[in-house]
């Protein structure tokens, strides 16, 4: 008996150790090093001086950080409302059709396989004043050309491709969850006279609630990592009005050579991410429905 | 669990660990852009060469002559020729394109991790300061004590111009750059305008071109690197341009930024100038939708011959009498570095010296200058260049002062404050030049 227990334990260790090594080497170690670096004035390569909490003091007084935090949460709101929202609508609609489901799955999922940089370039061209698709359309409709990316509209304009790219991802997750709901639940509801929109509101959505929360958490996490799309489309401008945390950290590290300060921004990103997800979990915490 | 399943599980787990171990192995990093130039030629030439009789030596070289750089082909041919002449030397070419920050990051990472190439072609100034401070590159003064012939073809004036903060020379340059005002002559002729050689002519051109629905000036406000250089130079003159705020905020710099604001308010820039990048501004000029652009010598290479025939290059017009009308921004901002570890390696020293001497010889400088159109660092004559290149070289030759760009004197962060958190806010009236320059000063001193 004891030998069997020991061999089971050995198998567990053998199976879990590669993943654990990966996590320690590529996640925990860099994070701890990053946290340590945030107390240094560093060019990231050769020169490094301990400066205590100076980077964090600078973080508190940095006006651009305030704009970046505000914009990051604004994009988070758009992502929760539109990315996950449109995915739910599309998933319920595709679930209700009998023919062509595979076609819609492929079409809606397609943008995810394109790199964010390519999508950024595409949207940059779409918004371009001189050769942009939108202005060409405006002209063909007899309208004046206009600047699509302005101080007021910059965040919204960069949010559109961010939202658009990942709708398909959440669509697939939600559609799969809907498919797991037993058919007899719908059949008995149908006998009770519930159908169409009410069926979605009272049966489908409550039963996939946990999946929707998971999607929201993934979407919120995703926004904290965004930087490439904004870098390509606006570089955080004009006047820093589309600056976001991920991009600001990247610029401080690789354009300004202020790696220590960039490390403190990444600590802020981790703290805000954990805090936001904790709040989301608290808000949506409810008894799980099993079927 | 069945015995066979246990065995399978064990094999799977061990395989995973093996994969991990192999993945983390210490194999020399391979660069995707690396073009390994192998020595296939075993001809026995130049018997008198020092390295010929020596044992096999492998050298690594990292340069910016990779990717789409116009010098790539010439450089790779040079390495092949060198290896043909030195059969015992094998060169591993780790060159990359300089577009983006990847090459900078590669070189700095290599130096900080002790994996530096034997010879590196890299920037001078602020970029290399930390590497010099870490004592990982050789000052040529030390090399010349034993090998006085190294880099002998490069003119003394140019060698002096790339000396670093400690007065020593660490990089031997090949070609230099210059910046100036590129003008579409045919547009100026069409509207009967004189070339903008004075501030008044420049202002008149802006007015007339704007009235005729032509973008007078292709200037990307949020990437205003060249605009900052030239507007400061035209207002503060060559001496004022060198100021790094040691005596406070210079008044001329304030006026220079107000000059940019003034042009912005007069609609001298494109309507989307606040969000356009350098490439978009270049396209505007290349498509002949804009009449003027401030750019560097490398810009010529990207223009079609048909457009080159219509172009002229002149110094930025003087906005005040402090600027000599011939003054330009130009210089030599990159060169070959020899790593200390390679030089001090007895097995490699001779091969490194032979290679650096060969790469900085007049013939090689001429070959690279012919390929990229830059100003050669040696007294050589470049043939077959488009007249626009010759015009550029003449502008350099006529210049009474050649100033290096402002970013060579400010920290990258301070200069980026000027570009990103400065000019766009100034032209939009959200910050004054004084406020911006004060922040730049603080950031530079941080």
Automatic annotation (TrEMBL), chain A:
It is found in: Cell membrane. This is Lactose ABC transporter permease. InterPro entries: ABC_transporter_permease, MetI-like, MetI-like_sf. The keyword Transport applies. The chain crosses the membrane at residues 9-32, 75-94, 106-127, 162-181, 201-224, 258-280. One of its GO terms (cellular component) is plasma membrane. Residues 69-280 form the ABC transmembrane type-1 domain. It comes from Vallitalea longa. Keywords: Cell membrane, Membrane, Transmembrane, Transmembrane helix, Transport. GO terms for biological process: transmembrane transport. Belongs to the binding-protein-dependent transport system permease family. It is a multi-pass membrane protein.
From TrEMBL, chain B:
It holds the Pfam family SBP_bac_1. Residues 42-53 have a biased composition (Basic and acidic residues). Residues 31-53 are annotated as: Disordered. Keywords: Cell membrane, Lipoprotein, Membrane, Palmitate, Signal. Residues 31-40 have a biased composition (Low complexity). Residues 1-21 form the signal peptide. This is Sugar ABC transporter substrate-binding protein.
């Amino acid at each position: 008996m004891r030998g069997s227990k020991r061999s089971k334990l050995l198998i567990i260790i053998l199976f879990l150790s590669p993943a654990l090594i990966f996590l320690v080497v590529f996640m925990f170690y860099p994070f701890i090093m990053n946290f340590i670096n945030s107390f240094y004035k560093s060019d990231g390569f050769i020169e490094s001086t301990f400066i205590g909490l100076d980077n964090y003091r600078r973080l508190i007084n940095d006006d651009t950080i305030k704009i970046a935090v505000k914009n990051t949460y604004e994009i988070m709101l758009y992502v929760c409302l539109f990315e996950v929202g449109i995915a739910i609508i599309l998933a319920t609609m595709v679930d209700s059709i009998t023919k062509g489901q595979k076609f819609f799955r492929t079409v809606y999922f397609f943008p995810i396989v394109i790199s964010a940089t390519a999508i950024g370039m595409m949207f940059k061209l779409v918004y371009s004043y001189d050769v942009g698709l939108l202005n060409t359309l405006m002209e063909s409709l007899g309208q004046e050309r206009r600047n699509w990316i302005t101080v007021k509209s910059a965040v919204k304009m960069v949010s559109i491709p961010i939202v658009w790219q990942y709708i398909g991802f959440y669509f697939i997750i939600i559609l799969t969850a809907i498919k797991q709901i037993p058919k007899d639940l719908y059949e008995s509801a149908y006998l009770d006279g519930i159908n169409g929109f009410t069926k979605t509101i009272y049966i489908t959505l409550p039963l996939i609630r946990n999946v929707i929360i998971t999607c929201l958490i993934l979407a919120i996490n995703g926004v904290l990592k965004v930087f490439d799309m904004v870098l390509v489309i606006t570089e955080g401008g004009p006047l820093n009005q589309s600056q976001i945390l991920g991009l600001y950290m990247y610029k401080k590290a690789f354009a300004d050579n202020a790696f220590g300060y960039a490390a403190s921004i990444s600590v802020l990103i981790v703290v805000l991410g954990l805090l936001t997800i904790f709040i989301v979990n608290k808000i949506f915490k409810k008894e799980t429905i099993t079927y | 669990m069945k015995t066979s399943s246990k065995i399978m599980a064990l094999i799977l787990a061990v395989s995973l660990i093996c994969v991990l171990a192999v993945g983390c192995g210490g194999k020399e990093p391979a660069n995707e852009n690396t073009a390994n130039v192998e020595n296939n030629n075993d001809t026995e030439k130049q018997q008198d060469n020092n390295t010929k009789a020596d044992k096999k030596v492998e050298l690594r070289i990292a340069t910016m002559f990779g990717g789409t750089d116009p010098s790539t082909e010439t450089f790779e041919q040079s390495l092949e020729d060198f290896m043909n002449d030195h059969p015992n030397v094998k060169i591993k070419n780790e060159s990359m394109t300089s577009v983006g920050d990847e090459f900078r990051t590669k070189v700095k990472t290599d130096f900080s991790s002790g994996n530096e190439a034997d010879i590196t072609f890299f920037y001078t100034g602020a970029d290399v300061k930390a590497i010099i401070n870490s004592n990982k590159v050789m000052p040529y003064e030390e090399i010349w004590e034993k090998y006085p012939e190294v880099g002998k073809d490069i003119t003394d004036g140019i060698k002096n111009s790339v000396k670093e903060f400690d007065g020593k020379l660490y990089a031997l340059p090949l070609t230099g750059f210059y910046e100036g005002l590129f003008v579409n002559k045919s547009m100026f002729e069409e509207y009967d305008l004189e070339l903008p050689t004075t501030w008044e002519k420049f202002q008149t051109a802006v007015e007339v071109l704007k009235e005729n629905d032509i973008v007078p000036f292709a200037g990307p406000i949020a990437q205003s690197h060249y605009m900052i250089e030239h507007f400061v130079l035209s207002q503060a003159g060559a001496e004022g341009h060198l100021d790094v705020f040691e005596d406070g905020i210079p008044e001329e710099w304030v006026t220079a930024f107000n000059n940019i604001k003034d042009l912005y308010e007069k609609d001298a820039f494109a309507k989307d100038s606040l969000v356009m990048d350098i490439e978009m501004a270049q396209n505007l000029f290349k498509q002949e939708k804009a009449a003027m652009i401030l750019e560097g010598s490398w810009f010529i290479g990207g223009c079609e011959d048909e457009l080159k025939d219509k172009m002229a290059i002149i110094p930025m017009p003087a906005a005040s009498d402090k600027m000599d009308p011939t003054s330009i921004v130009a210089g030599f901002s990159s060169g070959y570095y020899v790593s200390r570890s390679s030089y001090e390696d007895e097995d490699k020293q001779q091969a490194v010296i032979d290679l650096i001497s060969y790469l900085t010889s007049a013939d090689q400088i001429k070959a690279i200058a012919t390929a990229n159109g830059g100003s050669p660092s040696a007294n050589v004559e470049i043939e077959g260049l488009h007249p626009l290149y010759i015009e550029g070289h003449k502008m350099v030759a006529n210049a009474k002062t050649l100033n290096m760009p402002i970013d060579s004197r400010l920290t990258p962060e301070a200069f980026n404050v000027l570009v990103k958190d400065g000019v766009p806010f100034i032209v939009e009236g959200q910050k004054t030049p004084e406020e911006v320059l004060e922040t730049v000063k603080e950031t530079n001193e941080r």
